[in-house]
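ok here's the first one, seq then struct tokens
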Amino acid sequence: MKGESGKQNAPEADGCEAATLKEKAYEHELARLHAELVKLQLWVVHKGLKICVVFEGRDGAGKGGVIKAITERVSPRVFRVVALPAPTEREKTQMYVQRYLPHMPAAGEVVIFDRSWYNRAGVERVMEFASMDMVQQFLMHIPMVEKAVVDSGVILLKYWLEVSQEEQRRRLEARITDERKIWKLSPMDLKSFERWYDYSRARDDMFAATDTAWAPWFVVRADDKRRARLNLISHLLSHVPYREIPREKPTLPKRQKPNGYTEPKDQPKLVPELAWPSI
């Protein structure tokens, strides 16, 4: 079931390990889900909905790829991605969640957090940027903050992308050898790889303290990137009630006549057209 549109999403997994999804099948299903996301976008604007989607997970779990899959066919003015840098010296003195609150959605917006206030429960704890007392205070208070967010009318969805040790190793090694991906590999990623079980403990404590009735966590198995993207987008669509807004199909009007217009002789410099090899 998918919101209020009455259409069926992909069937539920049967619990068995599925074969890797082929690219053609993936592209077909992703195109279908992109069309649904556009319908959702129009409904969000029409109804003034406020949606906040939080993405957390281990390094290399594929958060960026999922976010790209969600946003590549919708308007960035409606679907807004927030990926905050390290806090400034001033922000370090603020109430911890303070720097995240200005980015929360207004009416007609979907805000996607590529990592969020849960940095305190994860990377800051594991890397000892925050004391255990600070972490415990965060875990104690954040459910009430999220309750206030939800009570204000925000639809809050929290996703954790889980990846196996073997797949994380493969992806991080690929970042070392692939020149297109070297920017993705930071010293923090290497420490994250080393401290697998510290992250596991931090994740477990985070779930125990913040998996609430009003803001539950949803875990996505992400060893197969394609399946993870389709599963997550389908889940998101099913948790936001929406309908397709009827609209007339537009037709292109006739172009105006030139009325004496001619192309100028002096043109700006053209980009050279190179002889690329055909595939």
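and now the second one, same deal
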Amino acid sequence: MRVALIAALLLAQPAFAQEGSHPPPVPASEKPRVDEHGATAGREEAAPGARAQREHVEGKAGEAKEEGGIAEHIFHHVEDEVWVPLGFWVGAHYVHLDITKHVINMWIAAGILLLVLAAAVRKRAMVPKGAYNLIETFVLFVRDEIAVKNIGHHADLYTPYLCSAFFFILFMNVAGLLPVPAMRGFPGISTATGNLGVTMVLALFTFVITQIAGMRAQGVLGYWAHLVPAGVPVWLYPIMVPVEILGLFTKPFALTVRLFANMVAGHIVIFFLIALTVLISPLVAPVSVAFALGIYLLELFVALVQAYVFTMLSALFIGMTQHAH
């Protein structure tokens, strides 16, 4: 009996040794993992719902990436970009003379304006009709309702500039609403007044003409001597002089930001309304497109209003310099 027991132990020993030396492979789901949150349990059953939570987080990250891509795509349409690089270096300074998308659109608006005016005034008549009647109506409105009422007796001197600013801004605003995409080397249609550089230069024209108008009406010394209103105590001059000088520059700043912000905001709203079909569901397309069309029609009205506001404020600033405080 002892011999049989020893024989059984000897036969079983290779099997135990084989099982101990080659353990069965551990499934990937049961292996412990170490990540930025520390070590996790080997089995998924140790943390119920871990896979569902992980898939939910990954889904949220994918949606955030998609929303970011849509936002970048939208802002790409309203921001400027270099189309024909023409800059050059002067020492360590780079001079930007590049032709950008907004520069091309500004040229397009100016070309359309010249063609429309040339075609409208080609046939003059005692009784205006057609496009000539429309252009004359706008010119008379700028002269009588804006220039004369804000500037006074010297309105005729500044009416040409006010008409030029009104029509140029109006055509840039309206041309930017044309639905023409980029294709075959053409940058596409974009609103040139949605560029701070364009609106700033327009405001600087008004600023320079305002200072010239003031010095022309009051004299060079008289204009700057009456910069501070009469009757202000002498001890307030250290405060009033910097305030009045700062006020000279806040006016063109207001013209710059007002025109830029109003034109860019409408375009961004239209693009985001259309993007709702991607962010939410294609089922909202009828509603989002209808709202986008409504904002588009409102943008046509805003294009005219912003041209009027810029012209009216320019005339107001010029008129304020015609008489001493």
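notes on #2: The first helix runs from residue 2 to 21. Residues 1-23, 34-47, 60-67 have pLDDT under 50 and may be disordered.
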